[in-house]
Amino acid sequence: ILNVEQSPQSLHVQEGDSTNFTCSFPSSNFYALHWYRWETAKSPEALFVMTLNGDEKKKGRISATLNTKEGYSYLYIKGSQPEDSATYLCAFLSSGTYKYIFGTGTRLKVLA
Amino acid sequence: DTEVTQTPKHLVMGMTNKKSLKCEQHMGHRAMYWYKQKAKKPPELMFVYSYEKLSINESVPSRFSPECPNSSLLNLHLHALQPEDSALYLCASSLVGGEAFFGQGTRLTVV
Known about the structure:
The complex is a heterodimer. Chain A is mainly β.
């Protein structure tokens, strides 16, 4: 059984605060780690596809890092805005399969 | 076209009904997926099709029957469902190992 854990489960921050959350995944048979953002009543949308140990990716105010040896990834949001409110999911892909195993998600609420 | 289209958006069915969920993409993705998502839980993988062949069945009950008639279409046939099967059913597609593109889901209620 592949366990992909995310913490915290939910988070409330004030507008302008910076925040980060964690995704933990198996460190063996790693192929890729994806981050998705899922807003209510919309489809999950990919934020980052990360494949290499030490990867750092950035899109606007959002960035992510990857440590495949120890099995974790961090997602950072700088200067949170109310429109950042969503559930953030990470998904682990092991080598040799087509299975995306999703983490438990972090529900972020940014208060104006 | 980077859309995955799912129909219907909402479905209410009785426990003796037979219905189908449909999913369509035209991105040339050869991997397609069905996920089930219950409230406040992550999406749970049900089935994976690779090159129109079923490659993964996550021990899903036989009352759910997937079908991939061609590289653009994915169906999920439903028969004799139980109320606990009520959930959001998400379809996704991807290139192998690439980011998954999701449909908006079908909200299924079994009465």
